[in-house]
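A.,

Following up on our hallway conversation. C-alpha cells first:
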C-alpha cells in the first residue's frame, strides 16, 4: 500500500484519490490498473471542477447584471417615473381652436392632448377653459363635442376660468394668466402655441419660465404631436423636458471641427461648446460690428 501510495503521490495524485481507487479495485490491484483508474478519476474531477467554476461564474455574472439593473437609471425610471414627471398645464382654448383649424372650438382636441399625457404616465394634468364655453354653440362661436368639457370637469382635469354677465355684458377673466401662474407655481409645463408676450413682459421670472417651459405642438388629423426637441436641437429631448430630473442621457452633439475659427456663426450645424445655448455671430459679423464701434 505504501509503495502504491508513494507512486501515486509522485505523479501528483492525492492520498484520498488513491484510497478511492483501492477501495474500488482492492489492495491487491496492479499499479497499471490503479494508474488507469486514477487517470479516469482525475479527468472526472477536472470536469466537475470546470462545470462548478462555470456555474459559479455564470451566477456571479447574473448577480452583477441584476445589481446593475437595480442600480440603473432605467429601473429607477420604471418605478419612479410617475413621480419624476412634471405637472402639465394645457391652454384649452389654444388647443381646441388649433384642432378645429382656427374655425371651430373642438373639445375633442383637448381630449386628445389630455390622453397623450395620461398615457405617458403624467398624474397632474390641468386644462383651463373660459367658463363661457359652457354656453350653447352659436354661429359666430362654433363648439363641437361640448360634452367632453363636462366629463373632464368631473374627472377634475378641466377647470373653467370665471366669467359673469353685468347688465347684459360678459365680463371674462384672463385665462392665460391662470395658465402661466399655475404652471410657474407648480414648476410644470405649459402646453400651448401662444407665446404669452404680454405676460412675459409683466415679470422677468415669468419671461424666463415661459422661454424654458413652453411646449408647442401640432395636430395631424386626430394625432397630437409635440416636438422631439422642444427647445431646439441643442436643447433637451422631449422625454427629459417633461421630467423633473433627466434620466436618459442626451446624445452628445458632434463638435465643430473648426472650433472658434468657424465662420458660419449660428448657421453652423455642428455643436459649439463655447457659445452654450446662445447663437453666435460669424467672424464677418464680428468684424463689421468692430468696424462700426471703431468708426463711432
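Then the amino acids I'd put at each of the 296 positions:
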Amino acid at each position: 500500500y505504501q509503495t502504491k501510495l508513494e507512486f501515486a503521490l509522485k505523479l501528483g495524485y492525492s492520498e484520498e484519490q488513491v484510497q478511492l481507487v483501492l477501495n474500488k479495485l482492492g489492495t491487491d490491484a496492479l499499479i497499471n490498473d490503479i494508474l488507469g483508474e486514477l487517470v479516469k478519476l482525475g479527468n472526472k474531477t477536472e470536469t466537475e471542477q470546470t462545470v462548478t467554476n462555470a456555474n459559479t461564474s455564470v451566477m456571479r455574472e447574473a448577480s452583477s447584471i441584476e445589481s446593475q439593473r437595480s442600480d440603473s437609471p432605467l429601473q429607477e425610471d420604471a418605478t419612479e417615473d410617475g413621480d419624476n414627471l412634471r405637472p402639465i398645464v394645457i391652454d384649452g382654448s389654444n388647443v381646441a381652436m388649433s384642432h378645429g383649424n382656427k374655425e371651430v372650438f373642438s373639445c375633442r382636441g383637448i381630449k386628445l392632448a389630455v390622453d397623450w399625457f395620461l398615457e405617458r404616465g403624467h398624474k397632474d394634468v390641468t386644462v383651463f377653459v373660459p367658463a363661457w364655453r359652457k354656453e350653447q354653440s352659436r354661429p359666430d362661436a362654433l363648439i363641437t363635442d361640448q360634452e367632453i368639457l363636462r366629463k373632464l370637469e368631473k374627472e377634475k382635469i378641466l377647470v373653467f376660468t370665471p366669467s359673469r354677465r353685468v347688465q347684459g355684458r360678459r365680463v371674462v377673466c384672463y385665462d392665460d394668466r391662470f395658465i402661466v401662474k399655475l404652471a410657474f407655481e407648480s414648476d410644470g409645463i405649459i402646453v400651448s402655441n401662444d407665446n404669452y408676450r404680454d405676460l412675459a413682459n409683466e415679470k422677468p421670472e415669468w419671461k424666463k419660465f415661459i422661454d424654458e417651459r413652453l411646449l408647442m405642438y401640432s395636430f395631424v388629423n386626430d394625432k397630437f404631436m409635440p416636438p422631439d426637441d422642444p427647445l431646439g436641437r441643442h436643447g433637451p429631448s422631449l422625454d427629459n423636458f417633461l421630467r423633473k430630473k433627466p434620466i436618459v442621457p442626451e446624445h452628445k452633439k458632434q463638435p465643430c471641427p473648426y472650433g472658434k475659427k468657424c465662420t458660419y456663426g449660428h448657421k453652423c450645424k455642428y455643436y459649439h461648446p463655447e457659445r452654450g445655448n446662445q447663437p453666435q455671430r460669424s467672424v464677418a459679423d464680428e468684424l463689421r460690428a468692430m468696424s462700426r464701434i471703431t468708426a463711432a
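Residues 8 and 18 are 7 Å apart (CA to CA). Curious whether your intuition agrees with the design.

B.
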